[in-house]
């Protein structure tokens, strides 16, 4: 069996935001058209498609054939369409499946597409939906586990810093638990989390496709509304809608194209979490090792990264898990400015989930979009100089103390 190198030749994304007047379908159509235009291809050129979405069935009762509904309604038919549901890692999983099919020689050009609408007039419905990304039958046990773990920390929580659990998703409590563990175990601080968040707000202010485009200081982040200690509202990804797409092809197909600006996929890995405690081996550490081995590179070779920062603690943790700094030192590492534009290894130049936004079924491909335009040198005021290798880490759902699923991609100029 021959193995093909796989290339991204088309990227499309619309600005993430709150779009009460738009739906999953029309946002997906826009992202697909943008990716096709970017690749210089027609709809009829696509040989397979992988569509990621998480909540359409819950909000609008469209289950079962989501990808077929999306693509048929824009005249893409008679090709294999696979529906992908992998919580927040759905879009990167769609890309992984497209990559896998091309590597196996099953087709030469494929679409990976993610579209999600989460804003709703009923805010409780929007926030409640996130709980479906956990083990629903064992939800009460999960809450009890979090309560037990939180009680084990030697950490004083300011009285005004943890409001009641209404008005936020359960994932903010899960991230807050991880952050408190890190503070208790390694001495990291709320101010370090605010440094990460302020950096992402600056990056987001330079990104025309970012949901939030306002710069914020460390003090403004700390003074924002408390969500779950140590997290303030600015440190948490907003609810939002959007779509993103990538078109991938084989090396043989690439050779037939003129004017392509290809990005090589050096590694594409997918895995699930394990039943571990907070001191056990992290899914990100394990999967990063696999990605680096597949790509034949190490953490020091990565020019920039898009990491899954559903909260600022997510970024702190993942900079450690990806090997960019030693475990326990993510906070001080951020304070050195290493992860900021102009720093040693910029992270979340898009603004990350905290600012670019996090429409769950589209987020993984938004990360790929950012890495892709950076590697092409097309990122404008937030361009990373000399960008050669980019890493995207995208986690999805939660079982126990870590992600239920995760994808890591390493892309090369």
TrEMBL record:
GO terms for molecular function: acetyl-CoA C-acyltransferase activity. InterPro entries: Thiolase (IPR002155), Thiolase-like (IPR016039), Thiolase_C_2 (IPR055140), Thiolase_N (IPR020616). It comes from the Bacteria. CDD domains: SCP-x_thiolase. Residues 6-142 form the Thiolase N-terminal domain. Residues 288-399 form the Thiolase C-terminal domain. PANTHER family: ACETYL-COA C-ACETYLTRANSFERASE, NON-SPECIFIC LIPID-TRANSFER PROTEIN-LIKE 2. This is Thiolase. It comes from Desulfosarcina widdelii.
């Amino acid at each position: 069996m021959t193995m093909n190198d796989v290339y991204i030749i088309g990227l499309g994304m619309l600005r993430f935001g709150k779009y009460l007047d738009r739906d999953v379908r029309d946002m997906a159509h826009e992202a697909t058209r943008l990716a096709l235009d970017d690749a210089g291809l027609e709809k009829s050129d696509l040989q397979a498609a992988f569509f990621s979405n998480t909540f359409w069935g819950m909000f609008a009762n469209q289950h079962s054939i989501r990808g077929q509904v999306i693509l048929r309604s824009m005249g893409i038919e008679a090709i294999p369409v696979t529906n992908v549901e992998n919580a927040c890692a759905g879009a990167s999983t769609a890309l992984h499946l497209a990559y896998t099919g091309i590597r196996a020689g099953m087709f030469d050009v494929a679409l990976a597409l993610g579209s999600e609408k989460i804003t709703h007039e009923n805010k409780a419905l929007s926030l409640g939906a996130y709980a479906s990304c956990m083990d629903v039958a064992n939800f009460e046990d999960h809450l009890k586990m979090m309560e037990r773990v939180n009680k084990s920390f030697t950490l004083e929580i300011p009285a005004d810093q943890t409001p009641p659990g209404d008005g936020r998703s359960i994932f903010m409590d899960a991230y807050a638990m991880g952050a408190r563990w890190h503070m208790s175990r390694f001495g990291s601080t709320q101010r370090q989390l605010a440094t990460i968040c302020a950096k992402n707000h600056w990056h987001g202010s330079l990104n025309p496709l970012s949901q939030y485009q306002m710069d914020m200081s460390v003090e403004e982040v700390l003074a924002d509304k408390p969500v779950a200690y140590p997290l303030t509202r600015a440190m948490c990804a907003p609810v939002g809608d959007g779509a993103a797409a990538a078109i991938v092809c084989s090396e043989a197909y690439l050779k037939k194209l003129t004017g392509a600006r290809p990005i090589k996929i050096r590694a594409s890995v997918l895995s699930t979490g394990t039943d571990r405690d907070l001191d056990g081996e992290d899914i990100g550490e394990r999967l990063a090792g696999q990605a680096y081995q597949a790509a034949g590179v190490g953490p020091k070779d990565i020019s920039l990264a898009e990491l899954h920062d559903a909260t600022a603690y997510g970024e702190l943790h993942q900079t450690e898990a990806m090997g960019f700094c030693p475990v326990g030192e993510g906070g001080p590492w951020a304070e050195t400015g290493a992860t900021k534009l102009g720093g040693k290894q910029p992270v979340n130049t898009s603004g990350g989930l905290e600012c670019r936004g996090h429409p769950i079924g589209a987020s993984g491909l938004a990360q790929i979009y950012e890495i892709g335009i950076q590697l092409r040198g097309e990122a404008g005021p937030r361009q990373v100089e000399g960008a050669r290798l980019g890493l995207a880490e995208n986690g999805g759902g939660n079982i126990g103390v870590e992600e239920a699923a995760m994808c890591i991609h390493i892309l090369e100029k």
